[in-house]
Amino acid sequence: MTVVSARWNVAFVTELFVLGITAPVLYLPQRFGQDAVLFAVGLLAATWLWRRLWIGVWYTATPADWPLFLLFVVMLPVAVWAAPDPLRTQYTWPRALVLLWNLHLFVLFVTYISRQRRLLTPLLLIFLGSALLVALLAPLGVKWLYKLPGVQAILSRVPALLGFLSREGESGFHPNIVAGALLYALPLMIALVVAGLRRQPRSLWLWLLAGAALYTTGVFFLLQSRGGYIGLAVALAVMAALPHRWGRWLLALGAASMLLAATVGGETLLTWVADNPTVEAVGGTATLENFRVEVWSTALLAIGDFPFTGVGLGAFQEVAMLLYPLNVSPGYYFGHAHNFWLQGAIDFGIPGLIAIVAIYLAAIVQTARLWRAPLAPPGLAAGLAGSLIAQSIFSLTDAIPLGSTANLFFWMLFGLILALGNLTFGGRSVSEEGR
Predict the structure, then answer these.
(1) Which of 109, 246, 380, 394 has the fewest other C-beta atoms within 10 Å?
(2) What is each CA distance from 191 to 197, 239, 348, in whole angstroms?
């Protein structure tokens, strides 16, 4: 092992350790106090100087640098400032701290995978292992819904031991949020297993991954997120069909059929996908589809009233209930706009939404390039594309907002995609001298 590689290994392990010890503090700042939070933020900031002094690199540039600058350096402070004072302490600062931690996680993925291919494996395992951990813990903290016949007798017996960790209250995490988090990794898991079975069917690691994918798929199915089902189904169809000419024709036909179905029977389709609360919970909304339509309409009103600043990070529900005639019971927690793009504009204003869209576009371009490149392990490019597709479709009718607990999967997935693009097509490390 060369001296340079050894120094990179030390830097990598150190930064990983700092992320590990600061995560509980920044994810649960109310439980640790202001001094601990300031110390954790200082540790994260120190990793940038540590990285520069130890390996001579501030970070590794990506095609998403300017959108990231706009989002974090310009619009995140605006989103904190825009929140009304009581909500800023209760919602905005906790989400801003989570976002800062997520940014450092993203930088770690991009910096080290871009320069050291052998660090791809441990970081890929961290990504997939985090999804498996969510699947393992989900039954202990999810507020189960009983849409499928026969599941209530089983799921109602599972104790919600971790429900207290939810920001929605003691009832636990909403299953749609958990399903959305798993969608960041599940298509990738499945793609790696399928590709591995074709090449190394006797590998012990492959069978361990297959077991993890099977279990995660089972939990995902029990979460009963219809938007999640559609996202996963479309992702699997694209991964299976896109490599073949006939498959591309079928995908084009399927896309046209879905567009026609949405045009002709959009209301019926929305009713099926909606995953909405009961009429009583939302205070009299007459039909299932009306709940999402009403929330979306309110979101558009808020964006029109606060186009440049948003309403404040995480403050949408309280601002909406105060300023707009939303027909939802004050005691019902809906939390976000049930659309990732609308939520982005609500939290960060239209400039922030532009930054988020630009980050997505950079990832889409890199994913398309990676699809045609020979990558190891097999199935990696297809799986990353599938995860991006599944999550994008899910995000049309639901949202895992930036700064929420599960949003770290967003930054790990995008970090993997952009880092692999750098590794495959060339990236530039940014140092003090601008090398």
Answers:
(1) 246
(2) 10, 8, 34
- Residue positions counted in the chain: 435
DSSP string, 70-95: IIIIIIHHHHHHHS-HHHIIIIIHHH
Does the CA dihedral 348-349-353-359 come out positive or negative?
negative
Helix, strand, coil fractions of the chain, as percent rounded to 5: 70, 0, 25
> What's the rounded Cα separation, in Å, for the pair 370 and 114?
14
Which are the contacts of 395, defined by CB distance < 8 A and separation ≥ 6?
Answer: 180, 339, 340, 341
Structural contact between residues 177 and 399, judged by C-beta atoms closer than 8 angstroms:
no
* Residue whose tokens read 């990353």: 384
As a whole number of angstroms, the distance between CA 190 and CA 145 comes to 25
3-class secondary structure for 270-317?
Answer: HHHHCCCCCCCCCCCCCCHHHHHHHHHHHHHHHHHHCCCCCCCCCCHH
What pLDDT sits at residue 242? Answer: 79
Classify each residue of 143-179 as buried b or exposed e, where b means 16 or more C-beta atoms within 10 Å of its C-beta. bbbeeeeeeeeebeeeebeebeebeeeeebbbbbbbb
Structural contact between residues 412 and 181, judged by C-beta atoms closer than 8 angstroms: no
- Spatial CB neighbours of 110, under 8 Å, sequence gap ≥ 6: 59, 60, 62, 415, 418, 419, 422
Could you give the C-alpha distances from 9 to 113, 122, 415, in angstroms and in order? 12, 12, 19
Task: Indicate the domain borders of the chain.
Answer: 1-56, 65-430
316-344: per-residue pLDDT in tens? 988 988 888 777 776 677 778 889 999 99
The angle that helices 186-199 and 226-241 make with each other, rounded to 10 degrees, is 30
H or E stretch at 59:
strand 59-60
Give tens-digit pLDDT for 219-258: 999 888 888 999 999 999 999 887 777 777 777 777 776 6
Q: For residues 60-84, give the mean pLDDT.
A: 95
3-state SS, residue 334: coil
Q: Distance of CA 208 to CAs 66, 179, 184, 409, Å?
A: 39, 22, 19, 21
CB of 319 within 8 A of CB of 336? Answer: no
pTM: predicted TM-score of the whole model, two decimal places = 0.89
Write out the two tokens for 161. Answer: 């031991």
Tell the residue number behind the tokens 């920044």, with chain if given.
26
